[in-house]
Amino acid sequence: MADPSIEKLSTGEWSPERFGRHLRETGAPLVERVSADEVDVTFVDEPPGDSAVTLSVAIGPRIAFNPVGTEFTPVAGTPFRVLTLRMRSDLRFSYVFTRGGPTGTGAGGPVPAGAGGKAPAGAGGPVPAGAGAGGQVPDPFNPPPRFSECSVERFSGASVAVLPDAAPLPWLDRAEARPAPAVDSAVFASELLGNERRIWVSMPPGELAAHSALPFVVHLDGTPEHSAPSVRDALVEAGLVRPCAVVLVDQLGAQRYKELLCDPAFSRMLVEELLPWLRRRYPLSRDPADVALAGESFGGLCAGWTALHHPGAFGNAVLQSPSCGYHPGLGAGTGAGELLRRNPVPTLIADCLAAETAPVRFFHDAGELEGSSTHSRWLDHVLTTKGYDTLYREFAGGHDYAWWRGLFADALLWCFPTGGRDGSPT
What we know:
The protein is an alpha/beta fold. It has 2 domains: 4-166, Immunoglobulins (Immunoglobulin-like); 171-329 and 340-415, Alpha/Beta hydrolase fold, catalytic domain (Rossmann fold, 3-Layer(aba) Sandwich). It is 25% helix and 24% strand. A hairpin with a 6-residue loop joins strand 5 and strand 6. The chain is globular, with a radius of gyration of 23 Å. It starts with a helix and ends in an 11-residue tail after the last helix.
């Protein structure tokens, strides 16, 4: 059933102004528990004019926002439109609303008293005619959190829903409440690649000891507002990780889709040009065990593949929902061509199987509800069987920055704990 406040609104017991205050006070979306592990989640929009509204979430097979085909339903006599879905109570997910053409193409009339416009969670279907990426907006009653802008534009600026049984991300909460840390910015030119890009470097809080040689993490798909430095600061000040530098590497628009796909030239650039460039400018360790390469999605694929092939440079790899199903020869189609199609083993998994076990530690997380979870489980099985020191985590969600931003804290705790990796003091 719909949230009780929707019934009060639809019967006239509450005015639209009173309902708006309720939304601002309680937060959106509205959540009502219906069983030990399920909740009804009611999304509310107040679109201009007669716009149709649908919901898209970062859960599902698409590496993007997956549309839920059921249209929001108008609440009679009010400017509001609502959609109630029954969901697992442990989900955390990014979401957006898509506003399209006139309402009425996918849903019934106004909501009567006691109704909630309920639709099955995960219902498929097209986005209404006239809607598209240009019509995507965050939930007006649940503004995007800090760090919601990211290098992959289609994921930027989304609202985040945290359902009551979702695993907490306490270090992200602390990071969001902190002032922005200082970040040095410079242009880095690569002779190997014949291009240049912006690099941002954040040093840890506090005074550095003389002759410091800091551990550090190189994070692909970097932006100057990335969450990683603030998460690092919270952990360092709590005494849980060693003071470490965070290096954020800009990816160059569409060039990202070449550079991060197991490209030997890009990996050589990181090892032969970027690391020496960084060490000339900052007091950074030369011990591979003190160096981590991190990334999300294609960045996670690149981090794992580069560390595997260059263990003398990167002794740690942080793979967040890595696209480890990638192989340049993989494709899909229909018709007679399917009779000759062969599916090779994905590149990162095949290279792990073929190579001698390297001195690299892997932190690996993935959403159990994203399309690539099967490949992540396969990669973890291969790494474990080959004897790698690896930590694999699955979270209750999809291919989603809402999780990656917080689980990066677990990656730092894995890579650079203040205690030795066997628990002994350093």
